[in-house]
Amino acid sequence: MITLSNIAVQFGKRVLYKDVNIKFTPGNIYGVIGANGAGKSTLLRAISGDLEPNKGTIELGPGERLSVLEQDHFKYDEFTVMDTVLMGHEPLWKNMKEREELYGKDEMTEEDGNRAADLELKFAEMNGWEAESEAAQLLQNLGVKEEQHQKLVGELSNTEKVRVMLAKALFGKPENLLLDEPTNDLDLETVEWLEEYLGEIEETQTVLVVSHDRHFLDSVSTQTIDIDFGKVTVFAGNYSFWYESSQLALRQAQNQKMKAEEKKQQLEEFIRRFSANVAKSKQTTSRKKMLEKLNVEEIRPSSRKYPGIIFQMEREPGNQILEVEELKALDADGSVLFDHVNFNVEKEQKVVFLSRNPKAMTTLFKIINGEREADGGKFNWGITITTAYLPLDNTEYFNSELNLVDWLSQYGPGNEVAMKGFLGRMLFKQEEVEKKVNVLSGGEKMRCMIARMQLQNANCLILDTPTNHLDLESIQAFNNNLVSFKGNILFSSHDHEFIGTVANRIIELTPKGTIDKLMSYDEYIHDEKIKEQRLKMYS
Questions:
Q1: Res. 441: pLDDT tops 50
Q2: In DSSP terms, which residues pair with 403 in a beta bridge?
Q3: 263: left (phi > 0), else alpha (psi -120 to 50), else beta?
Q4: Are the CB atoms for 319 and 345 separated by under 8 Å?
Q5: pLDDT, tens digit, for every residue of 67-93?
Q6: Most Cβ neighbours (<10 Å): which of 184, 212, 447, 534?
Q7: Which residues of 337-348 are buried (b: 16+ CB within 10 A; e: fewer)?
Q8: Which of 436, 492, 500 is nearest to 461 (CA)?
């Protein structure tokens, strides 16, 4: 349990929130949402003790532990992977170290013996004898292989370190758990495992999650913490419920003719429908109860702004889109990224490319965009096809002293007013368009790249992990437009919701060929025959 009493946080004159009084109760997972800069991570830092609120108190239940997903990936470089995970349960780790010290003595005094007996008792109470096997199981479930468990953390790649930090946070089932962007750098299979793991949390556990992954938030959250209007509000339901209800409330607010009673009835009907569609699971059962108690007065429009992302085609695509024959690509170390890749893209197909090695998708997109040579095979674009490409790494585009307006003017026709209009649609304020592009944040660069793509009026979009660095509002707007886009889309993504709503064809790239299916993403990942086929293709 986590209790916030009269919490206020401000930086200089800017007040993030004040008068925050919330009790986070056991058995619940709270999805924390808010616009960029609203203070989502700040709230978690205040609870963890990493940041001192300007006012108020934060208390845990008596004798409860708090565990945090740490963001410093170099802090444990000198420790083994196993020891790092065990450190996640601080009382157990201290016990182990003290026991080691006592048993390492040449001679033990009577006092030492009594202390050792106490430690042994507490060690057993904390499930110490099973600790290493439980830590090993967590690591394996998160994709860290057994042969890496005794390696130093400093020897691991950054994506492997992320998994170790997550295992450390989860280890020992802490009563209170804070997870800031836990799905970052995880593949889709590991995210699914994490969803299932959190779906089975103990009734004694309280979890707060900040994430840009809408499917993940929807899967795990029993309640939503919305940071908006300078307030922190607990909201019944998951992210989708919050988004759809706030959009409905916004439409109602804009409809001057609708009477108050009509609005109330419409909102009540919306809550009933949403409650009826909730699937049966531990989370969703408690979520359903909360939705049934929800007062329609609590539903109101959000202050969030959504970028205007609209892709339009200058010309209709012909029948031939893209033909690929026996394409092959090797990694820098000579290992096979993919081989025997054959496919023909047809009109209106939106294809998601998957692989266990994310380099495979990036390499394919580079090849079909003429940015690198294939190691075998060929490809051919139809003569009517125009492409707009969103690369994974956009660094080279921003090594420039140009301001935003001049930068965008390089990529399409239009005067300064038109360029400022495009940038305004992507939520750049008037004073921001004079900024130099080499000082932009990751999210700002991504919004510039999307504006650049819109100027091209292409009929085929190529998107390499398009939700990277974007906030939930930008992801939602991007997603909505791609669903209605009439041209072709070739893309890769870690975002389950993005794939599930956009893709109508799935091609998995493996070293032994492709798996190519016209089916939904959820059908694909849960199909037993495809699971067997994937094992063979990667073996």
A1: yes
A2: 436
A3: alpha
A4: no
A5: 999 988 899 999 999 999 999 999 999
A6: 447
A7: bbbbbebebeee
A8: 492
Distance CA 391, CA 393 (A): 5
Euclidean distance between CA atoms 187 and 516, whole angstroms: 19
Q: Which residues pair with 30 in a beta bridge?
A: 208, 223
End-to-end CA distance of the chain: 46
Residues 6+ apart with CB under 8 A from 228: 34, 35, 38, 302, 303, 304
- Residue 366 carries which side chain, given as an amino acid letter? K
DSSP conformational letter for 25: P
Name the residue with tokens 């860290």: 144
Under 8 Å CB-to-CB from 133, ≥6 apart: which residues? none
Tell me the range of 195-209, 240-254, 407-421, 505-519 where mean pLDDT is highest: 505-519
pLDDT in tens, 278-336: 554 444 555 555 555 555 566 666 777 889 999 999 999 999 999 999 999 999 999 99
Reported as type and span, the H/E element at residue 60 is strand 55-60
Better pLDDT: 179 or 242: 179
- Predicted local confidence at residue 448, as pLDDT: 95
Q: For residue 196, give every residue at least 6 positions away whose Cβ sits within 8 Å of its Cβ, in sequence order, or none.
A: none
CA 231 to chain centroid, in Å, comes to 24
pLDDT at 152 over 60: yes
Residue type, 312: Q
Are 422 and 454 in contact by the 8 Å Cβ rule? The answer is yes
Residues 249 and 535: their CA atoms lie apart, in Å, by 47
The residues near 328 (Cβ < 8 Å, ≥ 6 apart) are: 336, 338, 339, 340, 341, 374, 375, 376, 377
pLDDT of residue 99: 87
pLDDT at 241 over 90: no
Query: In this structure, which amino acid lies at residue 219?
Result: S
Q: 13-23, pLDDT tens digit by residue?
A: 889 999 999 99
- Summarize the confidence of residues 35-44 as an average pLDDT: 88
Distance CA 236, CA 223 (A): 5
pLDDT at position 103, please? 84
Whether 55 and 8 have beta carbons less than 8 Å apart is answered as yes
Which whole-number Å values give the CA distances from 288 to 114, 240, 285, 385, in the listed order? 52, 14, 5, 48
Contact criterion met (CB below 8 Å) for 523 and 510: no
CA 482/CA 312 separation, integer angstroms: 11
What torsion do the CA atoms of 491, 496, 499, 504 make, to the nearest 10 degrees? 140
Answer whether residue 411 shows pLDDT above 60.
Answer: yes
Among candidate residues 229, 226, 258, the one with its CA nearest the CA of residue 242? 226
Rg (CA), the chain: 26
User: pTM, whole model, 2 decimals?
Assistant: 0.81
